[in-house]
Structures are given as structure tokens and as C-alpha cells.
Amino acid sequence: MERLQSLSDFINKDNHWLVLAGTGAVLIGGITKRKKKSWPKDTVVLHSVDKGIWDMSLTPFAVKLETYFRLADIPYINNPTRQQSSKKKIPWIEYNGETVADSAFIVEYLNKKLALDLNMHLTQTERAIGRAFSKMRKPQWLIIE
């Protein structure tokens, strides 16, 4: 109680400017943006939530992207963050200064940018079956224990 009383005495003794300055500094410090990090050239930076206890991402969309990066031998860095993309999506990537959100758009973007085709060994029929399965699956992920 004594500490609270001394704080109110401090505020009441013409120290309003000091209290306002301190409050302003805290607010401005919380609002300012961090400097943009410099990432290695030709490396995908995956911005996603932290990994779980088994070193696997907590979001299935990030797992999909990390699997794709490993299959395609694309160098990537995982940057754990809760910051969303400009489209309010997680995960999202940065690649040589460009940002892309949504896992499906990311795969499509990197396929075009890096001239990749992980399905080139498939026949037309196999490609059609794969496309049908990817379009017919439920958009929700079910986790069964």
C-alpha cells in the first residue's frame, strides 16, 4: 500500500510530463517495426508457427511445404513466427525479396520460378488421378488419435 501511495504522490507532484513521456516511450517502442532481416540469396524463408515437440510444425500446411522443399531439394530456412502475411495467412514465404502466402500458391510459385516439375515422371493418366485426388480431398484436416 505504501508503494502505491508513493506512486500516486509522484504523479500528483507536477511530474505529469515524466509519466507521459515514459508512457509514450513504452507505446512507441511497442509500435515501431523491427528491421527487416537479410536472408541468403536463393533461399526460401518459411515463416510459420513454432515446431512441436517432435520437431514437426504444428500446422499441416507448413508440414506440406517443408516436405515439398525436401523433395525438390530447395534450400530453406524455417523462421518461427506468429506474424501473418499481408493476406493474413500462415505459413508464408520470402524468396529473394518476394513474399507469397498460402501453401498451394507457394508450391505453384516455386514450380514456375525454379522450373520444377515433381510429376514429370508420371504418365498423363497418373497425373489426372493425382489431380483428382488433390481436388476431391476435404479441405479440413482430420487428426485421429
From TrEMBL:
Residues 60-136 form the Thioredoxin-like fold domain. It comes from the Eukaryota. InterPro entries: Mito_Protein_Transport_Metaxin, Thioredoxin-like_fold, Thioredoxin-like_sf. The chain crosses the membrane at residues 15-32. Keywords: Membrane, Transmembrane, Transmembrane helix. It holds the Pfam family GST_N_4. GO terms for cellular component: cytoplasm. This is Thioredoxin-like fold domain-containing protein. The lineage of its organism: Eukaryota, Metazoa, Spiralia, Lophotrochozoa, Mollusca.
